[in-house]
Amino acid sequence: MSGSTLFEQILDPANRDNPYPLYAEMRKNPVSRQEDGTYVVSTHAELARLISDPRISSDDLPDPQKFRWTGHPVTDLLVRPVRAEIRKRHRPFIFRDPPDHDRLRGQVMRCFTPERVRGMRAKTQKLTDDLIDKMCGKTRIDLVDDFSYPLPVTVICELLGVPPEDEPQFHGWATQLATALEPNQRGDEETQAKNEVCFNEIADYIQCLIKEKRKDRQEDILSDLANDADGMNDFDLIATAVLLLVAGHETTVNLITNGMLTLLRFPEHWQRLRTEPDLAPRLIEELLRYEPPVHYRTRLALADIPVAGITIPKDAPVIFLLAAGNRDPLRFPDPDRFDPDRPDNRHLGFGGGLHYCVGAPLARIEAEVALVSLVRRLKGVSRIEDPPPYRPGASLRGPRHLRLTLEGVAECC
Amino acid sequence: MTVRPERIVVVGASLAGLTAAHALRERGFAGALTLVGDEPHAPYDRPPLSKQVLRGLFSTDTTLPRHPDLAADFRLGTPATRLDLDARRVELGDGSRLPYDRLLIATGTRARPWPDREEAALAGVFTLRGRDDAQRLGAQLQAKPRRVVLVGGGFIGFEVASTCRDLDIPVTLLVRDAVPLAAALGPRLGGLIGEVAREKGVDLRLGAEIERMEAEAGRLTAVVLKDGERIEADCLVAAIGTLRNVEWLDGSELDADAKGLRCDGYCRALRADGGVAEGVFAAGDVARWPNPHDDGALVAVEHWGNARAQAAIAAANMLAGDASAMRRHDHLPDFWSQQFGLTIKLVGLTEGADALAVVHGSLEERRLVAAFGKAGRTVAAAAIDSARWLPAYKAAIRERAPFPPIEGAVDQPRIRVQEP
Hints:
The structure holds 2 protein chains of 2 kinds.
Chain A: H1 6-11, H2 20-27, E1 31-33, E2 39-41, H3 44-50, E3 56-57, H4 73-89, H5 100-111, H6 114-133, E4 140-142, H7 143-148, H8 150-160, H9 167-177, H10 183-186, H11 189-215, H12 221-227, H13 234-265, H14 267-275, H15 280-290, E5 297-301, E6 305-307, E7 310-312, E8 317-320, H16 322-325, H17 360-377, E9 378-379, E10 382-383, E11 403-405, E12 408-409
Parallel strand pairs in A: 2-8
Antiparallel strand pairs in A: 1-2, 3-5, 4-11, 5-8, 6-7, 9-12, 10-11
Helix pairs in contact in A: 6-8, 6-17, 8-13, 9-11, 9-13, 11-12, 11-13, 13-17, 14-17, 15-17
Chain B: E1 7-11, H1 15-26, E2 32-37, H2 52-55, E3 73-76, E4 80-84, E5 89-92, E6 97-99, E7 102-105, E8 109-111, H3 117-120, E9 125-126, H4 131-142, E10 148-151, H5 155-166, E11 171-175, H6 182-199, E12 203-206, E13 210-216, E14 219-225, E15 230-232, E16 235-238, E17 242-244, E18 256-257, E19 260-262, E20 268-270, E21 276-282, E22 287-291, E23 297-299, H7 304-318, E24 334-339, E25 342-348, E26 355-362, E27 367-374, E28 377-384, H8 390-398
Parallel strand pairs in B: 1-2, 1-7, 2-3, 7-21, 9-16, 10-11, 10-16, 11-12, 19-22
Antiparallel strand pairs in B: 4-5, 5-6, 8-17, 13-14, 14-15, 18-19, 20-21, 22-23, 24-25, 25-28, 26-27, 27-28
Helix pairs in contact in B: 1-7
């Protein structure tokens, strides 16, 4: 891969387990042009600046539909173009700009109340306890499949109001649709075709669910959104629900798994968290800096933007390499050290600007409950392999498996 | 100034004073630290007073958090009465004298009283500055006055008017100028807020002044305007600006007057002869300083953010030893206001601005960012219900970017430069 650009090397799965030396190389140029005309921003100061720059658009997706003749004129001339148009105009708000973004996000924030999020703590604790109870008697577990994945999936489904029996369906859908956040995957036609099928399935499902919520309003976010008098239309509602489900799945899985992997690598902090559970909030912030669940996000320059001595030209794709900014020595002294006591830890783990993670408070609660409970109850934990195998994504970066051996599981207190 | 200070006195125990005290300790100052305040209250926060406190949502206790290890001697309820620069000593109202090695003057401002003393003393006539004021006025509003007359076209007047409407109290807002809020926001945006106030039921009178008040048994019953109209009201709030608390500096040889205490870019107080007053610093509403974002023109900024920023710089410079180690106060003024359901934020100063451009949203939607230009450069930006983009405009103002700045942006109408 010596001939490839630095960002191509970052995308290369061979470097997934430790991209940080490549990030350090990238930071030598705060904003660096890649051969394909993409600009990668990798230093904290420039990221903090550009993330709030109104000349940077989040509406960066390539046209989702490339025309393919199916041989059926009604499908080709009517159904598909209409669907494509609808999909283009009703993307999830993570891919949209103000004012539409602000309106949709505002409606979601009204449902994502602090009370409702705090109310999930007890439920999260109960789910955590149950999942750890199931590990009793086992000597080997896969933390991802046995814990990190099922916990946030159940939490987000409950919060949104997806019936528990339908949860398994979301596994496949969410994993497939998460590729929309991976520029190296979303470009190819096969992935696009799969995403289209997947989106149609999930959209049909959610449309049915919305109908039910309108007939029988429940105490959940989808019910609130579906019954909001001056709420969003059904297309935006579907896109929003899909976004919340996907974003609530993959990211928290990574946060919990990365957290356990980091604590296993630095056993002194495992011990501290066991004895000082009050350390959890700071430890999780440091985790969000040190091993964030989302490594980069893509944007589009709407105008020439002078920054750090160069000009990002109009229409250039821009990559915010947030995880590199998190290790910027100009902002964080000794950045490659995992230090939960780090003062003034203004990391970019949840992004920034107007697209700052909507689910941040929920993610913090889930990670806190999960990590505190795991270190308390799991005994004699060792890694079977390090580094573990990673999922292919370079943006939503996280282990596919984290296989561990156990000596025992303490009773739930 | 090279000697390490052992005794530091801070006159003024509000946001700037407390911020400086914390900063001094954080920077390792271990000597004697005294804070002098004329009010009996521990340092408290003022912004909620005209909003949540008056509305009855927060208690009047808006005490600012204080570090448990601050170890400061608070001399509360005792105003400073005199400063002796040569003897390096502050005299207090109770006759005690405080010697200092470094002095921070952060005495702030007070509400400008209603000019007619007899009228000012009537029951039902209020000003609003401190928490005692907020308590008294809040109690009156909870008792549902028949009508509140507000005098003054500034932010306090508008915030109180908004609170009254939230409480469903009839309000008449008297503004002397032709446009409200023009000093801070310019006529166009000021006019927009005025429109919103009217829609929310405020009886807004522009170009209106009070001729006299009417009273029965020492209680306000009505006001008579200069044009002869009589408005019945049992409550009046005079929000007609502030006076700087500089009288105690009379005879001290410091360059202090109604415009404030003059200091240099390092927050050092200046003597009337223009020289630096050794060991004396100033911060917050009382200070008048050269604004580097306006070619060093002297400015006094009565904002929460400036009080904190300036106090932190002053504290650092008090411990810096000599001028070469001092930091310049280059804070870009910013403030916010909440009223009539809108959040208004401003960065920079609009004074002297000759151009305005709506750069996001629109006036019609009442959700916008507007940039202000002066002689071709960007000097300020105001956001109404859309503050998220302000950091970018802040950077443009700091860089003195050409006006209009940041073209080709998201949610941007076709930029049309107009008069502010």
